[in-house]
UniProtKB/TrEMBL annotation:
One of its GO terms (molecular function) is efflux transmembrane transporter activity. PANTHER family: BLL3903 PROTEIN (PTHR30469:SF36), MULTIDRUG RESISTANCE PROTEIN MDTA (PTHR30469). Residues 65-206 form the Multidrug resistance protein MdtA-like barrel-sandwich hybrid domain. Belongs to the membrane fusion protein (MFP) (TC 8.A.1) family. It is found in: Cell membrane. This is Uncharacterized protein. Pfam families: Beta-barrel_RND (PF25944), BSH_RND (PF25917), RND-MFP_C (PF25967). NCBIfam families: RND_mfp.
Length: 369
């Protein structure tokens, strides 16, 4: 083999270096393959009636409550109810010892007959003396005496009649009955005990629980919204697990705002025949303060909050379009908005972080990226 001289060797070396450089440039900058369009999940925009709700706390209170007390100084001789009894208006609760009152009544009724007889006798004498005085036969002093006797007999009759009414009323007081329908509390005094008129504590408290009230503390900032339409506002009473117990309406609004808490009390009235609500309970209240008919509704997952406001990605012919929205109110899963959208428009609910405006996307067949 012919040996290369120095000049030829240099040419060969330069060629090899050039080939290596070209190879590096070719293989270090391959043509990038196009990226696939991102997968997204979409949901349809809806038009439907929606109600804005406030989550508040309510306190259950009896619609009527009466503390039963004695109106006499006496002794309890019989108790007709048990603790927690359901009572009707007019049901007997307690009987007080009324024997002395009944004895006084019998005496007064006997006196009444005597008084009536005396009135008749004195009236006849007065009429006779008046006729004699008219003829000039009887002296004026005799007529005056007859007049006084007649008037005294009439006054005595009225006093006895009043005494009888008073005694009958007191005897009625001894028969203590429920003034309302309701549920009795625990009985604080038993048979044989002495009681005093209007003494405290009460003998028992009767609470009317059907219907029942729920008092709701409404923040002041919502007052104007509620005040103008409170009779049409729905009240959904829920337990601690979020289960609906009762649905009712607002019956009244308190006439002043609490200056410390800056709340105003709403009173809801609800049917409670099943006694699911009980005075003293605290309950969760879902207050429907505003209804929008044919509202534009989007899934809450479609919303994006940016420095420019709330937005959604709409998919139009597999292309991404950015739409600004104004949120009116939201539920745990949806939002009522104002936007340039219509019912059945498709908005992205998953995969939105991987898309760009005007870029293509792929909606998966099962709609689960």
């Amino acid at each position: 083999m012919k040996k290369l001289n120095h000049k030829q060797a240099s040419i060969w070396a330069s060629g090899i270096v050039l080939l290596l450089g070209l190879s590096f440039l070719i293989f270090s900058n391959p043509k990038e393959a196009p990226k696939p369009s991102p997968l997204v999940k979409v949901a349809s925009v809806k038009r439907q009636d929606m109600t804005e709700h406030l989550n508040l706390i309510g306190s259950v209170t009896a619609s009527e409550s009466v503390a039963i007390r004695s109106r006499l100084d006496s002794q309890i001789v019989e108790v007709f109810i048990k603790d927690g009894a359901v009572v009707k208006k007019g049901d007997r609760l307690f009987q007080l010892d009324d024997r002395d009152l009944k004895a006084q009544l019998q005496e007064s009724e006997a006196n009444l007959q005597s008084n009536q007889a005396e009135v008749i006798r004195s009236e006849k004498k007065y009429n006779r003396d008046a006729e004699l005085a008219k003829r000039g036969v009887a002296a004026k002093e005799q007529l005056d005496q007859s007049t006084q006797s007649y008037q005294a007999a009439g006054a005595a009759l009225k006093a006895t009649q009043a005494k009888i009414v008073q005694l009958k009323t007191q005897i009625d007081y001894g028969d203590i009955r429920s003034p309302i329908d309701g549920v009795a509390g625990t009985i604080s005094i038993t048979e044989g005990n002495l009681v005093k008129a209007n003494d405290t504590p009460s003998l028992v408290v009767i609470n009317k629980v059907d219907p029942i009230y729920v008092d709701i503390a409404l923040p002041q900032r919502y007052f104007s919204m509620v005040q103008s339409n409170f009779k049409n506002i729905s009240v959904d009473i829920r337990n601690s697990e979020g289960k609906s117990l009762k649905v009712g309406s607002i019956a009244a609004i308190q006439n002043t705002i609490d200056v410390d808490a800056r709340t105003i009390t709403l009173r809801a009235k609800l049917d409670n025949a099943d006694h699911k609500l009980w005075p003293g309970m605290f309950v969760d209240v879902l207050l429907g303060v505003r209804k929008i008919n044919k509202a534009l509704v989007v899934p809450l997952k479609a919303l994006m909050v940016t420095q420019k406001g709330s937005q959604v990605y709409q998919v139009v012919k597999d292309k991404v379009v950015l739409k600004p929205v104004t949120i009116n109110f939201s539920t745990p899963s949806e939002a009522v908005v104002d936007a340039d959208l219509e019912a059945d428009d498709q908005v992205i609910v998953e995969g939105g972080f991987n898309v760009k405006v005007d870029a293509s996307v792929i909606i998966t067949k099962d709609n689960t990226p």
